[in-house]
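Team,

Forwarding the record for the chain on the shared tracking sheet. I've put the sequence and predicted structure together so nobody has to dig through attachments.
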Amino acid sequence: MSPSVVRNSTTTDLFKDDLKLSLVGLGVEYPPNRVGPEELEKLARNHYPDSQPLQKVLSINRFTGIETRATVGTAEHPLISGQQAPSIAELNKFFLEEGVRLSVGACNKAIEEWGGNVDEITHVVSTTCTSSANPGFDHFVIKQLGIRSNVEKILLHGVGCSGGLAAIRTAANSALGLSFRGKPAKILVLACEITSLLVRSELDSIENDQEVRIGACLFGDCASACILSNGIGDPLYSDPIYDLLGWKHEVIEDTEHDLGFDIDPKGWKVILSHRVPFLAAASVSPAFQDLVKSLPELQKGSSPPTAADFDWALHPGGSTVITGVEQAMNLTPEHLQASYEVYMNYGNSSSATIISVLDRSRRLAIQREHVVALAFGPGIVLEMMIMRRSNAVRSLPSEDLD
């Protein structure tokens, strides 16, 4: 079977014309450090002997298109400046301190913009691929936010870079369940990743296995959050940021070994084959066409919309992923401006990145009415969602995009 074949694809599932689901608050929290490509070179010089694979990785590192990455530390951070790479236990302990801190910051921003009370939150849907704690990191975030302890919690695992959008999809389906019962849904969605501290583990593998691994060149740290509402009980004057029209979840056949994030005594190891940009780009058009056909709002014109009629909030997994989707869908860089800007300024922060891209998209000078949100994760899994921008003029919270 061709690796581009998508499992269980269907055009028969139709969404209601108005789901009454909206994102009503967004929050993004990056750590304070910004490191350029020279930081990886400094680490490599300080801790590893020269080799052909390492030189290849450092060469790629200079041309990723990333100007700076947001990280919890620099090359002098104690967890990455020691004689050995940190253990998974050390990484997880740090995550439960710094990751929780970043998460609380992102959640507070989303809650403040929403304007509601934490006692109104009905569910918390969270995701991370850089902590394996039990109880999960969401437990500690909820305590610090003062959310009631019996709030319904869902913690997604194994979804990697698609986790942020998968969490929004999960929240949307939960909200529809409450809508059916006539009850309000105010769902906090949270994604947090600390990937930068895995750099020593990646460099170890480059040295020990003498193979080219580009994960050390791409990833940064971030927490992001949003509030999803089903509209029941919302004040009449409330203005949504994005209305959710519908979504699609697909698995690309026979790609389990192309994209992954495997557990290791030194943390987690990025699996990223050279086929990923091609596989990702080839899967987008069929999924997009199916999703558009399932949305009554987009079928009311004389002809269905094309990809170029939308803004695209693509998870920036790498420059070749962005340009691959751009070319496959006949888009321009302007259609993907938010993705390019987040990638260039912050790098790939795995599951937390997509909400950051959506946050950036609402600040663009030129905006189309509808947005396609898209992310790829281990599997390879495709997550796609189409949203409509609110017509309301909002006073946006400030951002620190350089």
